[in-house]
């Protein structure tokens, strides 16, 4: 052996350490908060997604109802599209669309194709969901009313100011 080595006593056996209760409590509290926050965010995202899918299905029904009511108005020689009205629909058309589609939201008709008797652009709003339909038949060369895209938006009201 060399003279530079240090002499250490090697102790065999089990050593007992006192674990800190505060550290354990803090670790459990942090894990609980992280798990709760993650589950809350996941639950909110699932609820928003399911509501968006429901609103999308209703918007498809509104599109079918728009075409049917447009055909009825066309048979009566009156247009369904009224650009001077606040919702773009002729008198009584909104009620017929709501009754036919069985949807409770509001419809705003932005553009109508008189030749093909189909909506080119409309908005359907129910609660915090807004669905915008745009016909893509013009872009692809297909007649209007055959192809279209639905875009679903979710809006959250952050502040409300009331005028005095």
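Sequence proposed for the structure above (164 residues):
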């Amino acid at each position: 052996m060399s003279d530079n080595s240090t002499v250490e006593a090697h102790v065999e056996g089990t050593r007992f350490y006192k674990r800190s209760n505060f550290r354990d409590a803090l670790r459990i509290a942090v894990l609980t908060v992280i798990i709760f926050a993650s589950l809350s965010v996941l639950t909110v995202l699932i609820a928003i997604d399911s509501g968006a899918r429901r609103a999308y299905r209703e918007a498809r029904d509104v599109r079918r109802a728009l075409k049917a009511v447009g055909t009825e108005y066309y048979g009566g020689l009156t247009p369904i599209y009224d650009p001077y009205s606040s919702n773009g629909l002729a008198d009584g058309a909104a009620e017929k669309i709501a009754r036919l589609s069985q949807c409770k939201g509001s419809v705003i008709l932005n553009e109508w194709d008189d030749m093909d008797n189909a909506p080119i652009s409309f908005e359907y709003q129910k609660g915090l969901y807004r669905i915008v339909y745009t016909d893509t038949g013009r872009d692809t060369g297909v007649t209007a009313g055959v192809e279209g895209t639905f875009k679903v938006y979710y809006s959250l009201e952050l502040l409300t100011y009331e005028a005095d």
